[in-house]
Write a structure and sequence with these properties.
16-stranded antiparallel beta barrel; Porin; 2 helices; two-stranded parallel ribbon; 3% helix; mainly beta
């Protein structure tokens, strides 16, 4: 289960006050002397802190404290922000146990910077991030341009980012052993205001990866040709059927990923509906579809609540095998993996969200307390050891906006 707490003190970067909320001078006829006009704030500030937890039935647990902050000028159209988090991972999954390894604990740190400038219809964005753990270093940077057209009824965005990852082994310097993975990502977004209550978006993304992403700790069991290994075979059964050789995982040295997301948001008089559909395919012949739906109902000026549902299904990569067999002369398969996330699977998520305004009577949404709970059931359709996994992610947030 995950628990998160967030404290926010800002209006979203670049957001403008609605026309009806603009300050105005008090009528002179009602006062002996007119009051001076309220001044529009030149800056907004944001600070947030979050604590999260994750747990699943495969004995993986993650704790994630984080902090974020931003400052923006709504009138000038610029904003800058930063984010920092720490992941504390504890794992005793079946993949670890099957290699006779002990449960392990690991700490990952990640920091990022973001900046945006959009004084009028045209804007630019930039970001950079670094992630560091005992056996993995990831660096990335990116930029995007965006423009509003047709009286802001049409908005386009084009973005690019580059990532440079170095994977190694804990306790071994990268100069002695390392795998380098470079990643170039391109994205495009087209947003249409379809009516006063409906907005649609089309999002396309392409990622080109080059390098060796194979896990240096993942050993693959091999079997003699003709050996029957059932789906979900236990560790003891696999050990009784496999041959002594256990080569390390070996994945292809390049991968091209292509995604297309369609999003529709509609505002009813007292509710909001958001639908997302994402289609995915890559050069390893994996195909996937993800459908996400959220429906949030207003139960008064202080309460917003509603369900969340998500369905994801994917096919396996082209070199996937439940049980890899050696070839003539005990030849090891050139490509092999034990990562069940590369196999065929289906997962279903169901959850519920509740947000309660706890601010003053005049502005109840100045402080908002939120609760979020999601449970995911994943079915692995052609894998050793595990056929089903259940995970729980919960959250508690506290936000304030000035």
């Amino acid at each position: 289960m995950a628990v998160a707490a967030t404290l926010t003190r800002t209006r979203p970067a670049g957001a403008q006050r609605p026309a009806e909320a603009q300050p105005a001078t008090a009528p002179v006829a009602l006062q002996e002397q007119a009051q001076p006009p309220r001044q529009e704030s030149l800056f907004t500030a944001h600070i947030g802190t979050e604590y999260g937890q994750y747990g699943d039935t495969d004995h993986v647990f993650v704790e994630t404290p984080s902090i974020a902050g931003a400052v923006a000028s709504p009138t000038a159209g610029w904003s800058v922000g930063a984010h920092y988090l720490v992941d504390v991972v504890s794992a005793a999954s079946v993949d670890i146990v099957s290699t006779a390894s002990r449960a392990w604990h690991e700490v990952r740190q990640e920091g990022s910077l973001q900046a945006a400038y959009k004084p009028k219809a045209f804007g630019v964005q930039a970001n950079a991030a670094v992630s560091d753990e005992p056996d993995y270093l990831s660096l990335s940077a990116g930029a995007a341009v965006t423009q509003d057209l047709v009286n802001k009824n049409v908005t386009w965005l084009l973005g690019y980012s580059h990532g440079h990852d170095v994977a190694g082994r804990t306790g071994t310097p990268f100069s002695v052993f390392s795998h380098v993975i470079d990643r170039d990502a391109f994205s495009g977004v087209l947003t249409l205001v379809m009516s006063r209550t409906t907005v649609g978006s089309l999002i396309g993304d392409t990622v080109f990866e080059n390098g060796d992403p194979s896990k240096p700790y993942r050993y693959i069991p091999l079997f003699a040709p003709g050996t029957s290994v059932p789906r979900g075979a236990s560790i003891d059964l696999v050990n009784s059927l496999r041959v002594s050789a256990r080569p390390l995982e070996q994945l292809p040295l390049s991968r091209q990923r292509y995604g297309l997301t369609m999003r529709l948001a509609h505002r009813y008089p007292r509710a909001t509906l958001r639908l997302d559909e994402r289609l995915y395919v890559d050069s390893w012949t994996m195909k996937a579809t993800t459908t996400d739906a959220r429906y949030l109902m207003d139960l008064g000026p202080r309460v917003e609540t509603g369900p969340h549902a998500r369905l994801h299904a994917q096919t396996a990569v082209d070199f996937w095998q439940r049980a890899y067999t050696f070839g003539p002369g005990f030849q090891v398969p050139a490509l092999r993996t034990g990562d069940r996330e590369l196999g065929p699977l289906i997962n279903l998520t169901g959850g519920w969200m509740l947000r309660v305004g706890i601010g003053s009577e005049a502005t109840p949404s100045s402080w908002v307390l939120g609760f979020d709970l999601n449970t995911t059931s994943t079915q692995y359709l052609d894998d050793l050891y595990v056929t089903q996994r259940t995970s729980v992610l919960g959250g508690v947030t506290l936000e304030t906006e000035l």
